[in-house]
Hints:
It is a single chain. The chain is of the alpha+beta class. The protein folds into 2 domains: 8-170, no CATH class; 255-398, Histidine kinase-like ATPase, C-terminal domain (Heat Shock Protein 90, 2-Layer Sandwich). Helices cover 62% and strands 12% of the residues. The chain has 10 helices and 7 strands. The protein has helices spanning 8-26, 44-55, 61-75, 82-98, 101-126, 130-212, 216-244, 262-272, 295-315, 353-364; strands at 278-284, 291-292, 319-327, 331-339, 368-375, 381-390, 395-396. The protein has a 5-stranded mixed beta sheet, covered by helices on one side. The protein has a two-stranded antiparallel sheet with strand order 2-7. The longest helix has 83 residues, at 130-212. It is rod-shaped, with a radius of gyration of 44 Å.
Amino acid sequence: MRLPRPHRDDLFIAAAGLACGLLLWSFGLYTKSEELFPQRWATLIPLVVMASMEAVRRTLPRTALAVGTLAIVGDQFTNGNLATVLMFTDVVYAAVVYGTTASARRIPYSTGLITVGVTIAFLVWWQNAFALLIGVITGMISFLPAVTGAIVRNHREAADSARLRAEQTALLAEMDRTQAVGAERARMARELHDMVANHLSAIAIHSTAALSLDDEATTRRALGVIRENSVAGLAEMRRLIGLLRDSSEDTGPAAVPRLSGLDALVAQARTNGATSGLAFRLDDTREETGEQLPAPVELAAYRIVQESLTNALKHAAAGTVTVTLVRDERALTVRVTSPFGDRPGPRAPGSGAGLVGMRERVALLGGTFEAGPVPEADGTRIWRVRAELPAEERTPEA
């Protein structure tokens, strides 16, 4: 197994400690005299070993502490070197700061018990106050560095936790912002599609008819419908731009389409679809209860009818398009049926975005939506759009 490479700062600390120890040794400055190994060279062994452990204090903290403990114990049997003692305090500190979490919890307790044990042992042995001094020195070179390392580690972990929380908060804020922007873009896309697609579809159909039929009356009638829808579409676009523009001067509420405007919407569809053999009928069976639906529900229902009529102008075969509204105490049901099949004459292309927008509107309100061909009792098929919108929350009509 390849050992980790020592940190550059640890190598500098080890070199500085070894140099200081050699300087003290060269001048004969020892911490004790008349020991078991009084030879001068014996002091260098713990010094060199401790300096070597300083080099790996960050990469191998547990090994450095274990070997350093043996070195400081061996130093007590020589004349002793102050640099060896000081480097041992740094090894204890590094073992707590850079070691594992379990080691960081155990080392302060272990050194504290060692300090108390040494103090009691020397008190029993010597039975004088000098034993207390030995205990204080033991605590200073073992327990105090361990406690200092624990304090530093706790502060670092608290700072890391605070930084992580700040990063998570910033990430959540960015996610919320992205979701809000996406939701607003989707809402704008639905509004733009529902407000303008109807007029542009009519323009496409009648312009195709004007180009393909060589009849002056038909051309003039088609151009009239094109102009009418162009003006209406431009007005709708200007209204949408006004809603999107951030203007501090515009403090008035924006006009929201309501179901009371369905008569005009169906009348416009009747005009646009006359050349395609389409007839339009509104069957509003809602009960007059004196209460009105919430504005979001009315807007969604209005847009669903508007988009369904637009799709009928684009794709429906000749026949009658029926818009039916039914309301009970629980929900408002919107149903639009149109003849299903191929039809002669000009048709406007579709992208499928209308069905997606209707489905999204209903889903936002917690309702149900379905669209597709269904068989009739006489064997024919119709295209049916059906949306059920919840209407539990209602506000009394002023």
